[in-house]
Amino acid sequence: MKLKMLSTAVLLATLPTAGAFAAALDRSGQSISAFLQPGNYFEAGISVLDPTVSGKALANGSGIADMADDYYFPNAALKLQLTDNVSFGLIYDQPFGASATYATTDAPLSATGEGLFHGGNGESTTVDVKTQNISMIFGFQPNENFNFYAGPVYQTVKGHLQLRGLAYNGKTAFGAYNAVMKEDGAVGWLAGAAYQIPDIALKASVTYRSEVDHKSASDETFAATSSFAALNLTPNGNTNITTPQSVNLDFQTGIMADTVAFANVRWVNWKDFSIRPYKFDTASKLASAQATNNLYTKGFNLVDYSDDQYSATVGVGRKVNEQWAGNVSVGYDTGAGNPVSTLGPTEGYWNIGLGLQFSPAPNYFIAGGVKYFWLGDATARSGAYSIPGNAEKAQVAKFEDNNAWAYGLKMGYRF
Q1: Is residue 1, in this structure, part of any structural domain at all?
Q2: Range of the structural domain that residue 116 is part of
Q3: Where does the UniProt annotation place the signal sequence (predicted)?
Q4: Rg of the chain over all Cα atoms, to the nearest angstrom
C-alpha cells in the first residue's frame, strides 16, 4: 500500500471551510497544515460563511429577524524546505472575528419608538470585529519522522460597535452607545511538534498558540439622553483585549489503499476572554452600583464567555485517480457557554462537510469544499448579566433552530 503522497492529495480538499463557524469569535481554526507539507509549497484560499440566526424576544415573544451577516476570510501560506533538516513558513489567516446586524424591527416599538435592538431613529445594533495573523514558523527535522517548530505571531485587531434599543435599557443607558476600537498590532508565539511515517500516510501534530495582548485606542460615545452622557466630555482611553490561547491536535493515517482517516481536535481558552472598553467600564460600574445600592460596584463586560471551546472534526478521504480526490467529514463544537452575548447568539454546532480536489498536474491543485452547520440553540443576554440578582432580567432573547452554510476554494502549488 503506497500512501506517501495520498495524505496531501486527499486532505487538502478539506481545508477551505475548516473552522468557518465556531464558538465565540473563533473563525479560521488556525491550522498549520501547510507548514507540514513536504518540500516547497504555496497555497491561497478563501472561505465564505452564510449563516441564518433568528429568534424571539423573551419579553413578549415577538420575532427577531436574521441578525448574522455573511462574511468571508482569506488565507495564504508559504513553506520552504531550506535544507534537509530546516524549514521555514509564513501563514496568513484571520483567526477571530464577529459580524452582526439587527437590521429590521424585531419587537413592537415602545412609547419612545424603540425596539429590542433598535433605537427610535431607526438605527440598529451592529458589531464588526476583525483580526489578522501572520505566523512566522521555523522548523527542525532531525530525521524524516520528527518535526519540531516554533516562531513569533504578529496579530492585529480592530472593531466597531453600536448598541441600540431596549435590550440595553434604551436611550437612558447603553441603548445608544458607540465604540470604535482602532487597529492595534501585537506579538505572540506558537510552538509544536509533529510525527510522521510517510509510507503509511501517518501524521500527528500538536500546536500551542499563546495569548496576544492588545491595547486598542478607543473612541466611545453615549447618547445625550443617556445617564452616562457626561462621559462624552472625558478623554477617550484604551481597550485591553487579550485574544485567547489555544491548542490544536491533528491526526491522520492510511486505513486502506488510496484511503485515509483524519481527525482534528481544538481547544480555545474563551473562559478567560473579555472585552470591556474604557468608558464602558466606567459606565458599567456606575450602573452596577445603582442597581445594587452600592453593594456591587465592579461593573460588567461588554463581551465575555463562561466556558472554554472544544471542537472536533473527523472524516475519511479517498483518492479516486491521479487527478481527483474527495472526502467527507463530521464536526462538533461545544460552544463557549450559555447564555451568550447578543452579538453572537449561538451555542456550538454539528456540521457535515464535503471536499473535492482536482490536480491537473502533480505539482498543483484546485480544491473546493462545502459544509452545512446545525447551530446550537442559545439564550442571549446583555452584559449586565453579571450583576448580582440581575441574571434572569438580563436574558433578552432566545435563538433556536438556526443553521449556516460555508463554502471554500483553495489553490496549491509545489515547487
Answers
A1: no
A2: 6-414
A3: 1-22
A4: 23
